Amino acid sequence: MTDQSLRLPAEWEPQAAVLIAWPHAGTDWADRLASVESTYVALAAAVTRFQQLIVVVADETLRARVDSLLKQAGVDPGRVRFVQLSYDDTWLRDSGPITLKDGHGAFQLTDFRFTGWGGKFGAAQDDALVAGLVQAGVFGTATHKRIDWALEGGGIESDGAGTVLTTWRCLVQRHPDQSRDDMSAILRDSLHASRVLWLDYGYLEGDDTDAHIDTLARFAPDDRIVYQACADASDPHHDELQRMATELAALRTPDGRPYRLYPLPWARPILDEGRRLAASYANYLIVNGAVLVPAYDDPADDEAARIIGSAHPGREIVQVPCRPLIWQNGSLHCITMQLPAGLT
Fold this sequence. Notes:
By secondary structure, the protein is an alpha/beta fold. The chain is 28% helix and 25% strand. The protein has a single domain (3-340), classed as 5-stranded Propeller (L-arginine/glycine Amidinotransferase, Chain A). The chain has a four-stranded mixed beta sheet. Strand 15 and strand 16 (290-295) form a beta hairpin. It is globular and about 50 Å long. It comes from Rhodanobacter ginsengisoli. Pfam families: PAD_porph.
């Protein structure tokens, strides 16, 4: 395997499994554990219709509880694998492995430094998660490459063909002493990308990640980009998301064509004790043959699902209730990490 042959697959490429970590009373979900577990059960039921699910649990007691919950929901136990490890929180999009692959069936687990989104939260156990999964034998013969540079999986999007999309707001917060050129070079080198596209605009209130790209804009097959829009001129997000839409319209494919843009509707404001929660429809998860789409008990849910489906033709669209997740400032994509086919 040569370094030059590695690439970061697109999410819509074939997958082996989806990786999650189950919430428990020792995580930030403790105050609303029952409601968030209902979302995790719905997610597990949806994923296992299409492929394997790997569930990280903190101890044997939790494993038994999750096993019981999933069996009650009719989940096929043959499609669930448990791994026991310690973790601070359950946002595996950001603490899980970013997997590169080559053309010969070999994989590299790229393990960036996880800092709890720039030191906002304790993250020592989460930063060790990839190494723990490797030690547990989850990834077979894949190589494990630790990179001492802060990056979360939710902060990057890949088209599978060498283009990475990211946001300046996030990465300048993580690396305030580095220039855009410096960071572009690091991303190209570590992810074996040919180019990096940057968005300067876009954010969601209630977002701890400093504008992760997976809450804002997502690559889809055939040079499509699905993005979170806001048509309500009275909403505080309106101007910023309009500017982001303008930036997206100006992006070009490697052969110079504009991307095909799919704007998503805007959910009504969801508040928690006066705090606006980050309800993004762009935070969906692609699995084999389907797209799992966040639903927020909002009138826009069905239209968002329709648009996402039109950008991913040929896949079943499955809505997953995600309102409990945004209480902790994330959604469906944030709690999951897909693993490419052949890795496990």
